[in-house]
Amino acid sequence: VKSWADAFGGELYSVVTRYSGSLLLQKKYKDVEPTLKIKEVDGLELVKKFSEQMESMLRRKVEAVERLVEAAEDADLNHVYNSSLEFDYYNSLLINEKDENDNYVELGDEFILEPNEHFNNLLVNTTYSDIQLPTNVYNKDPAILNGVYMSEALNPVFVDNFERDPTLTWQYFGSSTGFFRLYPGIKWLPDENGVISFDCRNRGWYIQAATSPKDIVIIVDVSGSMKGLRMTIAKHTIVTILDTLGENDFVNIIAYNDYVHFIEPCFKGILVQADRDNREHFKQLVDELQAKGVGTVSKALTESFKILREFREAGQGGLCNQAIMLITDGAVEDYEAVFEKYNWPDRKVRVFTYLIGREVTFAPHVKWIACNNKGYYTQISTLADVQENVMEYLHVLSRPMVINHDHDIIWTEAYMDSALFASQAQSLLLMTTVAMPVFSKKNETRSHGILLGVVGSDVPLRELLKLAPRYKLGVHGYAFLNTNNGYILSHPDLRPLYKEGKKLKPKPNYNSVDLSEVEWEDRDEILRSAMINGETGYLTMDVKVPVDKGKRVLFLTNDYFFTDISDTPFSLGVVLSRGHGEYILLGNTSVEEGLHDLLQPDLSLANEWIYCITDIDPDHRKLSQLEAVIRFLTGEEPDLECDEELVQEVLFDAVVTAPMEAYWTTLALNMSLDSEAGVEMAFLGTRAGLMRSALYVGSEKISNR
What is the pTM of this model? Predict the structure, then answer.
């Protein structure tokens, strides 16, 4: 058996080396070695350079948003509210719709739409923005008409931004009255029930930009009088409040009747981060609440004030706003003693009260509680009122920011832009949004702190990662991004989609996958903590890497280099594998020599790599990467921007590997039909993404098509 095995091995080896020509390739690289420069890669320098480029790209996005904010605030300052304003605008639901007499319907004029590669080939109009309204908002409400009229001023700014920075994607303004102005304009399709449920005021980017981080305790009355519809409305109110909270907020829920109980006993006496998992957990528990017994508010209030005070004094939580949400069907007294003891005179905690039901006998007390604790009082008598009434608290919380004109720039966690255009099949891209609030600058209402809305723009994370190209990181190298909450923005091991039947769907928690779930640190979470704190540094870990779709495992030693991207909550990490990405070869090949070899027929370049930027100028979009490189080298397209270092490496590889073609061709000509049955094709790839191939049999005979 041993001699069989040896013979088989020897035979296989000689066939493979002969037909692949690997010995010739080694010799060719050996021959040019004296003229090569070999440079060691400095990981820290690399990660800092990438981070600076990313920062300048993101800064361009911020500048675009700042220009929009300025335009919106000025337009509002010069606009005089007119309650009888008559005005036609492009309503994205109605555009291009005609009535039975073949006239365009009201608010639905002709709106020219063309497919645009930059926007995933959607039909868009890049000269105008148009307006989307949720179904429950009346499209001719005076407040809407005035807002739409005023925000027409954003059109030229949208267009100008897009011309200045062609990598910008969607830009938009979400108004506090409920309309959403989107550039470029699109046709919006309702869901299968004919409803448009998208309301910009519920989106993460709107809520994050409109308020600062907050600690909230929700107190809900579960005494006997809350039975039936009141309980249903109360539950819906809690769920709606939970939906307005995000990663930077902290929350807990207390239910009270004869005694006070935390609806999740594990969270007794503390506040928890309002991340997706905790919010979903609370929603399930809220759903199980039942009404019985007699309500005593004072104990619940006391408990809430204590928690908020402890958190404030220990420097935990959001360290910004604190509020109590009281949901009840009435208060017998006004509990002045509790407030006097815990909240006056500083009134550090705002108290918002939601009176459930149609009864008004106890309304004065409930209203007094809110008004004497810098809060807001609303009465909710039907399920349909919940949304609008809950949104009010955000405007109250944002007042101090408005009065001081703090334009905080916020960046959201990664999310898929499918939600924005549920009406159109999107290729699912991970995005982050940069957003900023828009305030009213009018002097007469300045002290009211009126928030007009939020301006935002989407940044596809793919664009960011293009700035950390794979070829600079070696074979197993990669770059990843995470946020200051420890969640991944982008990572090769982040698999946000799953297959349901034939459709790909996002996993429910795709945007809150923690870094520790993909980079398994065997000891303490040094890497995670350092990156959350935005530090710069490096560490080394031994890792096991699955390759070939998980069929094999490699044992590698990886060097992690990380730094923060300034002015954003993000951190960038770069991973280099020892023995795979530490050195770069720099060859000096003249253009003439290299071009000749690049023009050979069976040579190709990795098309998903970026040798030249072809996706910005429409004239370049039809070029493949290889065509673009050749035009760049011959000087046919002087305005092509290319990565000179990478093109230089390609030229070098083209020259060194050129003799392989002749070698393969000679072999192919000398092959008799039956000599080596089974050898069909030879190919090679270089680290600069250059590939060559040769067929040994007619293409119709290849066994694996």
Answer: 0.82
